Amino acid sequence: MEPAVVWDRALLGYDLGGDHPFNPVRLELTIRLATELGVLDGVSLLVPEPASETELGRVHAVEYLEAVKQAPLAGWDVGHGLGTTDNPVFSDMHDASALVVGSTLLAAREIAAGRARRAVNIAGGLHHAMPDRAAGFCVYNDCAVAISWLLDHGFDRIAYVDTDVHHGDGVQAAFYDDPRVLTISLHQHPFTLWPGTGYSGETGGPGAQGTAVNIPLPPRTGDAGWLRAFHAVVPSLLSGFRPQILVTQCGVDSHEEDPLADLSLSVDGHRRIYAALRELAGDHADGRWLAVGGGGYQLIRVVPRSWTHLLATVLDRDLKPATPLPPGWVDKVREAAPRAELPVEMTDGADTTFSPWGDGDNDPVDIAIRDTRRAVFPSHGLDPDDPRD
């Protein structure tokens, strides 16, 4: 059973315009890089269709859908978070946004129908969109719509893990009171970064306590600290929750070169995260893994390499870190950005070793780990202070 890859050039239509940081060129460069490295050899790319209004209505209010459709005609600042600096109005905004949702829904359907165990959509991951407003470059929330659809098509235990540098607030909000969905977000501390949510004390609504999990990390956390926090929290919770599918938002704005945030991960750290997610899906979700993209604003040096590693990991075609960047890809980038300083390999040369939590360190990352474990582990019958749990 081959993994599914959803892609079509029409997804480049989700374009917020001008010098907006959420530039679709990052998607184009990723697909081109993955193609030239042979990652997509023999893979039949699945072409999505836009999500219907009924499907979008799983998460979004009818009046909001109408506002999105009318926004290009109405002009600047039309309410609902539209027409702002973060979420400028653009032509065909409804159709382009619905296509992103449709692409993640297509990936979900492939898994639900048993045609694939894994599926990936790098154009997805618009995790900030709320029921009645756009937020954080996100018009419609493809992650939440896909999870809602899965809940109605044979799944009643879904785990969502968000590795974007920003809190996965829209997905958390959509399922905050639903014990069938475990949302886990690792992100830069909300005191230091938009959207200002995602504290460890946000743990779920009545009847769903412990199913919202937040690990707020201090600025400048690098690979070792991030991986230490991830492994101190996520595997234990997935083991207890026993999800039928793992949905992951794989934003790469946690990289040290990203211009919009202050974590310090490397491409090598990202690659190790994807490998861990694949392993966890195999251990705890019968191999079912739906991966989407997300944030990432170092458009040339970081996003294409990191998400090419994501595609390779989903497809079991892992690339060696020292794999050289193909000359054709480099030449194409230099045509468009002749002054860009390009890496030469699929690695940053970073050391991603880390010490497991409980080995005696006591730094700000450990404080975040402790606070999160104490907030949610008791709800799952786990001892927050025992490193074995």
Automatic annotation (TrEMBL):
Highest taxon listed in the record's lineage: Bacteria
Please indicate if the UniProt record lists Lyase as a keyword. Answer: no
State the family it belongs to. Answer: Belongs to the histone deacetylase family.
By its UniProt entry, which CDD domains does this protein fall under? HDAC_AcuC_like
Pathway-wise, it operates in: Ketone degradation; acetoin degradation
Q: Origin organism of this chain?
A: Amycolatopsis pigmentata
Query: What keywords tag this UniProt record?
Result: Acetoin catabolism
Q: Give the start-end ranges of region Disordered.
A: 345-365
Is Protein biosynthesis a UniProt keyword of this protein? no
Protein name as annotated: Acetoin utilization protein AcuC
Sequence ranges assigned to domain Histone deacetylase in this UniProt record:
20-313
Q: Which PANTHER family match?
A: HISTONE DEACETYLASE HDAC1, HISTONE DEACETYLASE HDAC1-RELATED
